[in-house]
Amino acid sequence: MSNNIEGKVVVITGASSGLGEATARLLSAQGANVMLGARRVDRIQALAAELTSRGGKAIAITTDVTRYEQVKSLVDAAVQAFGRIDVMINNAGLMPQSPLERLKINDWDQMIDVNIKGVLYGIAAALPHMKQQKSGHIINVSSVAGHKVRAGGAVYAATKHAVRALSEGLRQEVKPYNIRTTVISPGAVATELPNSVTEPDVAENFQKFYEAFAIPADSFARAVAYAISEPEDVDINEILFRPTKQEV
Ligand SMILES: NC(=O)c1ccc[n+]([C@@H]2O[C@H](COP(=O)([O-])OP(=O)(O)OC[C@H]3O[C@@H](n4cnc5c(N)ncnc54)[C@H](OP(=O)(O)O)[C@@H]3O)[C@@H](O)[C@H]2O)c1
User: What is this structure's pTM?
Assistant: First the structure.
């Protein structure tokens, strides 16, 4: 029986580490053709080479999601190489949290540019192809912070609430085109994400929290695989998961 993943063309942003990398590995092992985007090209090239050596089909292209033309090139390259795009995973993101009163304007700008505009650019790049195909699946990555706001995390939470709002609007708008939409909201998952925190005291707290609570990145990859592998007439719209130990 088909797993509904084999042979699908999947574009993943932020594929150079963490959730994106784990997802590329799992989907490739299940037969997907993966197009990997991130800025650290050495990482995604090594990953593509590894997946190819295991019999998969994987291509890496340097992509900064804050640049629309680069995201469009990534998606267009997938269509050119593999003939179509079945799944767009807007995963790239960062989390330089700090209290608002510290006025970390550059961090705010970066979170808005990567976490919100990067997702919008991914939608813009994939949607025309999917409309034409009359099929496709757009998966956006929010967070528990897209459901709950905590002091010290207002801007990150705002970006992840925005991802959920965009995903719900998108879900309703793409009905005529037979496109599925999923927003996945993870709790603490062991990745390089805490490294994006720029304030030393906040970073230290995150490191401790992640060491105590975080679960492996494969947990996210399995959620993605579940959403994709459901039959085409089933649209898994939202997945929220946490480490069993995580209270917030
Ligand atoms: N880990 C968690 O606990 C957790 C929980 C909830 C939500 N999330 C979300 O999950 C997503 C993935 O994060 P992660 O946990 O896997 O963290 P990670 O290991 O730090 O990975 C982040 C990825 O985003 C990419 N990225 C950052 N800025 C980018 C840019 N301008 N253009 C393209 N790619 C960019 C990075 O690649 P390059 O640096 O190579 O460009 C990297 O591949 C994020 O949206 C994050 O908010 C994570």
Answer: 0.98
Q: Is 193 in the pocket of ligand 1 (CB under 6 A)?
A: yes
Residue 94 CA to ligand 1 centre (angstroms): 5
DSSP of the chain: ---S-TT-EEEEESTTSHHHHHHHHHHHHTT-EEEEEES-HHHHHHHHHHHHHTT-EEEEEE--TT-HHHHHHHHHHHHHHHS---EEEE---------GGG--HHHHHHHIIIIIIHHHHHHHHHHHHHHHHT-EEEEEE--GGGT---TT-HHHHHHHHHHHHHHHHHHHHTGGGTEEEEEEEE--B-SSGGGG--SHHHHHHHHHHHHHH-B-THHHHHHHHHHHHS-TT----EEEE--TT---
Alpha carbon of 172 to ligand 1 centroid (Å): 27
> What is the number of the ligand 1 atom nearest to the C-alpha of 114?
31
Per-residue model confidence as pLDDT tens digits over 107-160: 999 999 999 999 999 999 999 999 999 999 999 999 999 999 999 999 999 999
